[in-house]
Amino acid sequence: MDPFPALAPTSRTFVPGDVPRSMRTGLSGLTTGYRQGNRRIGQTLSMTFGHLTEQEMNLIQTHYINCNGTYDIFFLSPEIWGDFVNPPIPLLSDYAWRYAGQPSIEDVSFDRFTVSLELVTYAINFSDLIFDAGGAAASPARTYILDGGAASATPARDYVINSGASR
Questions:
Q1: Which residues of the chain fall below pLDDT 50?
Q2: What pLDDT does residue 166 have?
Q3: What is the largest CA-CA distance in the chain?
Q4: Which pLDDT score, from 0 to 100, does residue 91 have?
Q5: DSSP for 30-76?
Q6: What does the radius of gyration of the chain's CA atoms come to, in whole angstroms?
Q7: For the CA atoms of 22, 74, 112, 49, what is the dihedral angle to 10 degrees?
Q8: Parallel/antiparallel/unpaired status of strands 159-161 and 129-131
Q9: Least enclosed by CB within 10 Å: which of 33, 69, 124, 166?
Q10: Are 98 and 72 within 8 A, CB to CB?
């Protein structure tokens, strides 16, 4: 799982989503709400990358293809949030990202492209995430390892980011 390419968007729109809930109306007409979780759902990030070179445009296109379209998850690079001191969603948190749909690539002039895309959050279990694992022990099993270094490959991990010498 490769992080999103280190490109700065020319515009971005973040929608913070909401917590999962359901509303029920009783026979008396009284409405009651039930919160069904503690993590936000429906968070989206729409971005436009303007005046990209063909090589930069290909970075996004290749990333989309390597993520199997809208299937695989990934983390964002710091350049995405630009001048945010504290991004709305931290780079490494209990949320990963996935493509909401296909990127739109527009050829605007000779050798320049505009790419528009939308990402959605995907909740992951933060306890399954190891930061800077280095020589992390094989137990307990973790699903996600960031900066795996020489982390053991057993038990099998689903996602090793920056695998280094992991086998």
A1: 132, 166-167
A2: 47
A3: 66
A4: 78
A5: -EEEEE--SS-B--EEEEEEEEE-HHHHHHHHHHHHHTTTTTS-B--
A6: 19
A7: 40
A8: unpaired
A9: 33
A10: yes
Question: What pLDDT is stored for residue 128 in this prediction?
Answer: 57
Cis ω for the linkage preceding 155 (within 30 of 0) = yes
Residue 83 DSSP one-character state: T
Q: Which burial class, exposed, middle or buried, applies to 84 when counting CB atoms under 10 A from its CB (0-12, 13-18, 19+)? A: exposed
Look-up: residue for tokens 């980011």?
A: 161
For 162, how many CA atoms within 13 A lie in the half-sphere containing its CB? 13
pTM: 0.71
CA 156/CA 142 separation, integer angstroms: 9
Q: What are phi and psi of 56, to 5 degrees?
A: -65, -40
- pLDDT tens figures, 103-112: 999 999 888 9
